[in-house]
Specification:
This protein is an alpha/beta fold and 449 residues long. It is built from five helices and 35 strands. The longest helix is centred in the N-terminal third of the chain and has 51 residues.
Amino acid sequence: MVLTRMTAASSRLRRPETDDGVVAIVVAIVVVGVVVPLMAIVVDLGLTRMLAGQSRGAADAAALAAAGTAKANESTGDLSQADSDARALVQANLPAPPGGWSAAWATCVDPTPLPTIVGSGSCISFDSMLKRVRVTVPQRNVPIAFSGVLGVSSLHAAATTTATWGLDPSPTCALCVFGNYTGGRKGVQVTGDNVLVGGDLNVSSAGSLIATGGQVRFGGHRYGSGTVSPTPIADTRPIGDPYAATLDALSRTTPNGLPVYGQRASTVPPNSSCAPGIYQDITNCTTITGNGTYFVTGRPGTNVNVSLNADASQVLLFFTCSAGGVGPVVAAPCSPWSTMPRLVGTNRTITAETGSDLAVVFDAGLTRSQRLSGSGFGAGGLTINGSVYGPNATLGGSGSTQATVNGHVVVAGVSFSTFGSSGTTVLQVTVPPPTPQPVPDGPVRLAGG
């Protein structure tokens, strides 16, 4: 009986044969499912991070070198040496990729390059207006050791850096067009600064838009086969309004401290000598005395065309709209239903007051086309020594005479007709080149990227 009980007990203590190998299976599962993926993460991603750091260092060095060279060559605008310096610094800091550097640069793609690309590919680009250079290191494949077991076929390392060799101001312009530019078959020449067009840029065959000492940038689409020089650059940044605050102040108060709107607008008899004031029309002024503002309102129910029969020196011509008609005609803000005065160019000169930039202003609501270059037989072109501003006005017309503006032109649109003589210059805008701004913390600054 005792022997029988001992045998039964030993039978109960012995491991069943069906448990053999379970530990080995569990260990294998852990190794394959946990350890190997961790090795992939630690080894392969660590290698990727290391190579990405090397790429970042190369991009930083290249961008700084290119910015320094671009600054040194700023007077000539030549960016080819800056491009070469950037490539050389990348190549000096990184091993050559398979196929060599030439192929790598040629196929390198930056999704958001700056407007100017000098060499092959798009991975080194410049914005000379905002004094920036952007360097993207050609993407390099990272050799993988374990990630293939996770279905990852390849990893990549790359880096992008942007450097600047000056301040980052808003773009300045001699001709600023908030909306569309339609040059027709006419010529426009701008000297000393940029042409900025917020909308479409359309220059028809035989027409031209030439910017000397600046760039041509547009925010919409490019149309037409006319000449645009230099090559226009797509740029969707909004155009700042440099005169908005000034316009608000001018339209509210006259020099004698009274509000403009609501004041009576005088009529001018033929052959009159005129002084600063509020007029329905100044065409009859054969003498225009200076040192003040002439407000021109037009007349209710009539789209008045205003031309000058005398030179106007030391003045500001401010075109607005009118109200009344049954009773006295008074100055009033322009609305879509207003009848609006139009300035039509004649062979006269308008000169802004000393210390003032603006010579001709069109009120905020004044949308009628203005014809500085004149229109029709015998019409001449104005010479304006000062700036022209109309935030909702359009410069246009079909005349062939030239208007000359020695100042800025800031308008809503440009729309010259395709009719009449083609290829003639109808507008010349000239401003002094913008004053270079000092760099506060050294000749080259790393802006990040």
